[in-house]
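User: Can you predict the 3D structure for this chain?
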Amino acid sequence: MIRVAISGTGRMGSTVYNAITSAEDMEVVGVVDPIALNFDIPDEITTHNDADQLFELVKPDVVVDFTNTEAIPRLIKAVLNHNVRPVIGTSGLDVDTLSNLKKELSKKRLGGVVASNFAIGAVMLMYFSQLASKYFDTAEIIELHHEKKVDAPSGTALTTAEKMRETRGSDFINNIPDITHIENTRGGLLNGIPIHSIRLPGLVAHQEVIFGSDGQTLSLRHDSTGLDSFMPGVLMSVREVVKQDIFFNGLDSLFGLK
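Assistant: Here is the predicted structure, written as structure tokens:
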């Protein structure tokens, strides 16, 4: 039985809790949230506002984190102090944080995963976008999320643009209009790829990558219509990190798609 701690009790944390408790080979041994607990947790499960102290008490094998970038440094410190394998879905981690986490986990021979998206379909979208990047000079990304998402553009959009650039080997060609009637109409720009962020009630998590060339376009799209779409990837990651002794940056590396 894999002993799992959950970090964060927002909508994703609650969904992760239900998924872990339903899995036959896992158990939730503790829940941590540095601010406040946002869903009902049975009395027999230990809760705390400090990850280091929670890990000392419950000795988890894995922690699944969906919090924010402010909470991540304390979580990583606790992970390394107690040899807990991290599965992190918090977006916006900087390069230095990822590099340091990879280095320290490697020293301890611990598995770990950081992913901008745990939906398997989204991982395939990013992978197919990489493949197409070799054959098109222009592309744009439209990402759509619910109105309560705290960041823009999404971590998935940023990761997609970075992987497209890496595969292509150079920036894409960006169309710049002679006249722009409203500032930022063309979206934010990364690696020559305009990224457009939409925030509306009724949305969950959606992304479309559109490629264009003479006489044709190619559109790749993925839609998450519920938070449960992320759970197969989360559960797969939990099972894999206890078997592995290396760090995976993205589910594509875990799937062997790189």
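Residues 95-108 form the longest helix (14 residues). The chain has two domains: 2-117+228-255, 120-226.
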